[in-house]
Amino acid sequence: MNKIYNLVSNYQYMNKSLIYSTITGTIVYFLLGWLFYGILFTDLYPANEEHSMLFVFFGCLFYVLVFSRIYTRWAAISTFKSGAKAGFILGLIFAISMNFFYAASNGLNLEHFVTDVFIATVSTALTGGVIGLTIRKTK
Predict the structure, then answer these.
(1) Cα dist from 68 to 30, 35, 65, 101, whole Å
(2) Residue 70 pLDDT
(3) How far apart are CA 111 and CA 41, in angstroms?
(4) pLDDT by residue (tens digit) across 52-87?
(5) H-type helices in the chain, by residue range?
(6) What residues does each domain of the chain span?
(7) What one-character DSSP code corresponds to residue 41?
(8) pTM for this predicted structure
(9) Would you say the C-alpha torsion 114, 86, 34, 59 has a positive or negative sign?
């Protein structure tokens, strides 16, 4: 009976941490995107009338959900430092990958490539740190 209680208790903790870390991470990632792409580096991806902030928000939500899921279920990450380190590595790999896809259809602009990889890596590292910290606080 004790094993069943521990299993259910652990499952509830994971759900609570997953939900809270996804919410806080999404807010941070969305705001960092607004800061970097909307204020500091506006020429990197010029805005047009067709951009939907709702779809950008959902993109942030599901991207962060992947990190929250990895951190709570598989990696046992629950500090700002470990979350930021994992976020840095995963963000760097993902950013390089996505920029190669972008370059395949739009041509390679090395300055754009390096700048976007830098922005994405910093954003994901900070977001990963917040996710890790949130997990620690919701244990």
Answers:
(1) 15, 22, 5, 25
(2) 95
(3) 12
(4) 889 999 999 999 999 999 999 999 899 999 999 999
(5) 2-33, 53-69, 80-106, 110-137
(6) 2-137
(7) -
(8) 0.86
(9) positive
